[in-house]
Amino acid sequence: MCKKQFSVKVGTIFEDSPLGFDKWLPAVWLIANSKNGISSHELGRALGTTQKSAWFMLHRIRLAMQTGSFEKFSGIVEVDETFIGGKARNMHKHIRKQKITGTGGKDKTTVIGMIERGGLVRAEVVPNVRRSTLQRRVRETIEPGDAVYTDALRSYSGLDTDYDHRVVDHAERCVDG
User: Fold this and answer.
1) Whole-angstrom Cα distance, residue 30 to residue 46?
2) Which top CATH class is 76-168?
């Protein structure tokens, strides 16, 4: 077991907020339905929170509405994962001993990136590149039935049940379509 804390707020605009959904959901409704906008003071009064909490919620919700992060990607979407972290050869010897304990992606941060052709980009830190992790993120982010381009990583196999899944094998070529 990973023994990490988890809640339904993780990975959403509600993450890292001590406020419950009893405050967030009415806030989304109030902001979306106010014709002339709503101030943080007015939102705070309506929700029974402080102005500071209302300001925080207002900015998170406006950003989500602006970037469309409430909506799923559609059309042609490219998905890939990478490991972020310094190269061992660029580190000083004593730092390398502390930070690098294995090869490949070990001791590095795993990131999945998705780009909607002609549209938005999303990148997210994920715990690993296992099939369950990557496919869950793809299914949460992309509309079923759309075209999904991935590399030949075996973690992506099985996406063809819900998507028009196309694989680019980098051993053969870099780009397809």
Assistant:
1) 9
2) alpha beta
